[in-house]
Amino acid sequence: MSGFFTALFDPAMPFVRNAVLASLLSSLLFGVLGAVVTVKRVAGLAGAISHAVLGGVGLSIFLASRGILPDLPPIVGALVFAVLAALLIALVSLKAKQREDTVINAIWAIGMSLGVLLIAKTPGYADPMSYLFGNILLVSGRDLILLAALDALVIVLAWAFLPQIEASAFDEDFARTRGVKTDLVFLVLLAVVAVAVVLLQTFVGIVMVIAMLTLPAGTASRSAKSLAGMMLLASLYSVIFSLLGLGASWALDLPAGATVVVISGLVFLGASGAGLAAGALRMRRVRKTAHAKTGLQDCVSGASLSGPKEGA
Amino acid sequence: MNVAVRFDAVSFSYGGIEVLDHTSFHIHEGEFAALLGPNGAGKTTILKLILGLARPAHGRVSVFGQSPEAARGDVGYVPQAVVYDPAFPVSVERVVLMGRLPGASGRYCRDDKEAARRAMDEAGVAALADRSYAALSGGQRRRVLVARALASSPRLLILDEPTSNMDTESEELLFRSLGALKGRTTILIVTHDTSFVSSLTDAALCIRERGGRRGEVVRHPVEPVAEEGLRERGAGPVLRVLHETDLGEDACFEGEERR
Questions:
Q1: Closest residue in A to B100 (Cα–Cα)
Q2: Average pLDDT, chain B
Q3: What is the value of ipTM here, to two decimals?
Q4: How far is CA B33 from CA A208, B224, B252, in A?
C-alpha cells in the first residue's frame, strides 16, 4: 500500500492523483444520486440506462472505425443512447406502468448485446470489458472538470428540492396533492442519471456505475436517519470504498474498477447480514420475553385456580 | 349550509371500463361523511377526483366551490397505506412535515415545524416525533399519516379505509382525534364496510350499481346498534346503515336533529 502513496505524490505519475480526484468527485455523485435512486426505487432504471450506453459506445467506435463518422467520440454515442433509453423508460413508466419491467429488461439486454455485436464487428482490437469496468487511471483533466460541473449541478438540485424529492419518493400521490410536479421530478432524475452514467462510465465503467449508485447508498440506508444523512453517509462510504479499492488494486496489481465494486459489495453484504442477524436476535429476545410473561401468567392463573381447591 | 364537495353528473372510465356514470352527490361543510361501497365500486376513483389526481371525462367536481386542483391547499388526505422503500430513512416528524410541503422549490420554515408539532399533538403521535417511520406499528403509522394530513390545517380531511389492519387501541385513538375535529373540519371516510359506520357519522353515502348505471351515490339513514357484542368504534357505539331506505339528494345534514 505504501507504493500507492509514493505514486500519489510522484510528479511523474499525475494519473494516480487524477484517479484519486475522480474517486472523490464521483463519490459525491454516487452518494447523492445513489441515495435518491435507492429510495425512489429506480435502480433498475439506472441499470438499464447504463447498459444501453454500451450500445452507443459500440455504434460510435464502429462508425468511426469504418470511416462513416471518423471523428465520432464514443461519449457522443453513449450520450445519445442514454438519453433515448431514459426517454423510453420515462414514457413507459408514466404512461404504461404495467409494462415497465419488460421494457427495462429489454433496454438492458438489447443495449448491451448491440454494443458487444458492434464492438465485435469493429476492425482492430476493442475489448468490451474495458467499457464494462473502465479504467480510472486514464482519467484526464477535462474529465475532472466535467465531473466537478455535474457534482455542482446535482448538489444544487438536491439542496433546492430536497423536501420535494423526499416527499415524491415517500408517497408520490400525496406529493401530487401538495402540488409537487412528481412527473417532472422523475424526468429530471432520469436525465441526471443518464448524463452521470455517460460521464462516469467512460472512466469507471458501466458495471461500477450501477454498483456504486446502489451499494454505498444501500449500506448507508442501514444507519442513516434522514435522506440528507443518507446522501452524506453514502458519499463518505463511496470515498472509502473507492480509495481502498484504488490502493488495493495498486498494491495487488488488480483492475481498479472491479476491486472497488468487490469491496463495496462485500461491505454491503456484510452490513445486510449483520442487520439480518441483529433482527433475528431481537425477535428471539422479544419471543423469549413474551414466552416468559405467558409462562408467568399461566403459573399465576394456575395458582389462583388450584389454590382454593387445595384449600377447600 | 355551504357545500364542501360537489359531484355534478360526473363520468369517469379507466380505458374502456366505465367506473362512474353521471354520478352526483354533495357533502356539506362540517359534515362527517362515510363513503361506503364494496371493492371495485369506484370509491378510490371518487377520492382521486376530489384530490385532483384524476379528471372526469364528463361532468364537474368542485371542492369548496373551486376546482380540485385549486382547492388542494384546503384538503388533507390520509391514504390507506404508503408503499415505500423500507430502507428509506425518514423520521415521524419529517413525514408529518410533508403535509406542509411547498409545491415548488423551497424548504420547511419554523412555522411549518410548529404546525407539524401541533398536528402530531392532535393525532396523538407527538411522543414518536424522532422515531423512524419504518419502526412503527401499522396503527401508529396510520396516525402519523393523519398528523401529516392535519399539518396543513385542512378544511376537508379525507381518510381512505382508515381502520383496515388496525388494532383496537389505535382505532380508538384515531376516532378520538377525529371526534375532536368533528364540526370544525369536514371529514370524509372511505370504507368497504357497508354495514356499520362510526357513531360520529352524519351522512352515509353508498356507491352502488343500479339499472346498469355504475357509480350511483345515494344517502342512507343510520341508526344506533343495540346488539351486544358489536365492537365499539372509538367515539361510541357503531351505527347501522339502513340500505333499504334512500334519503335522496335533498335530505341534507342538519346536525344531530336529523338522526
A1: A178
A2: 83
A3: 0.82
A4: 55, 16, 11
